[in-house]
Amino acid sequence: MVKAQRKSDTMVAELKVRNHDFVAGLVEKLGGRDEGPNPHEYVEAALAACTVLTAQMYAARKGIPLESTDVVVKIISEGEETQISRQISYRGDLTQEQRDRLSDILERCPIHNLLESKITISTTVS
User: Which Pfam family is one of those matched by this entry (predicted)?
Assistant: First the structure.
């Protein structure tokens, strides 16, 4: 669960997840002061982080010599269509079979699955 509230007279949302505090902001051209990542960047970050963590967990479980995983995610919105681009690079002495298996697993990381699923948002106002 994430809690968000507006930070005084700024274009900043203060966010709290468990014991972690952070902010989301807007760039100057949108009226903000670039005080934190914007909401789209948090979605990109969620997919990138999930990809890295899933790769590390799977490699550790299967004894794959994965040293690191580098991921770049970009949301591209054009009109009513949105695409998400994800580039993955593995570092380590991996066989082609291990690289292919990791790539298959990463197509099913939890955030990847969420972003490809049919989503319903339920909102209540108090």
Answer: OsmC
Radius of gyration of the chain (CA): 18
DSSP state of 29: G
Reading the block at residue 32, the tokens are 């903000």
51 phi and psi angles, rounded to 5 deg: -65, -50
pLDDT in tens, 82-121: 999 999 999 999 999 999 999 999 999 999 999 999 999 9
* Cβ proximity of 71 and 52 under 8 Å: yes
pTM, full prediction: 0.91
In whole angstroms, give the CA distance from residue 114 to residue 14. 24
Quick one: DSSP state of residue 107? Answer: T
